Amino acid sequence: PQQLAMARNEVEAKAEAFRMSSMWERLRAARVALPSQRAHLAKEWLPDIPFGGEEWIEDKRARDKVSNNVPPHLWRIHDKLYDLTPFVEGHPGGRDWLLWTQGTECTLEFETHHINHDKAARLLAKYYVGEAEGDCVAAFTFEKHGMYKTLQRQAWDVLKQTGTGPTTQMLALSYLALAVWLISFSFLCLSGTYSMAMLTGEDSAEVLLLCVGFRCCRMNRSKVSKFLS
């Protein structure tokens, strides 16, 4: 209990120090500056709300151009500007993500979509073009020793040991299951029986009709061949 109380007091002291810091004031100002969905819904003139995805992106670009000084052809991440145009086609996450975030302040997207942050940061540095003007208006901070960044590093340490993809055993089981299904489906097409359809796991009614039709076609073709011969 005494250690728990000491830890609680330490956390409260750090929280109080953060509330008294300039970073806290910046964060409060940033949250006030962000558009409020509740304020939007309180308006009587609903067309002010960007309904679709493209309208929302355009609205964000317009806001970031004013509040975060982001040129329309660049990307702002933290307090730096990057020109990721040459990297659009080679982006592992797909070109659309970069096209959607072009001309915006996208620190949140960058931080939350790259678990291997060090590798992503090294690659990002190649496209640095300059410092951004003014403070960044954002709802979240990503301090190096904050909760999120600490959790991100710990998660990456675990993933380096366990891997981020399927294991060899799971791949083998998947290929085996696929082979069994292909073999059973082939028998289903040849037999056209209800029990084989159930074993294959297909939509029994539709597949059974398909197989019966397939067998009828084979029988009719053999009869025609006999007749012609």
Number of helices: 11
Sheet with most strands: strand arrangement: 1-2-3
What best-fitting shape do the alpha-carbon axes yield? Answer: extended
Average pLDDT works out at: 76
- The ordered H/E elements are HHHHEEHHHEHHHH
Main β-sheet description: 3 strands, antiparallel
General description of the model:
The chain has helices at residues 2-19, 22-33, 37-42, 53-67, 95-101, 107-112, 117-125, 147-162, 168-191, 194-200, 204-228, and strands at 75-77, 80-82, 128-131. It has a three-stranded antiparallel sheet with strand order 1-2-3. Mean pLDDT is 76; it is low at 40-47. It is built from eleven helices and three strands; from the N terminus they run ααααββαααβαααα. It has 229 residues and is mainly α.
Outline the fold blueprint.
Layout: H1 2-19, H2 22-33, H3 37-42, H4 53-67, E1 75-77, E2 80-82, H5 95-101, H6 107-112, H7 117-125, E3 128-131, H8 147-162, H9 168-191, H10 194-200, H11 204-228
Antiparallel strand pairs: 1-2, 2-3
Helix pairs in contact: 9-10, 9-11
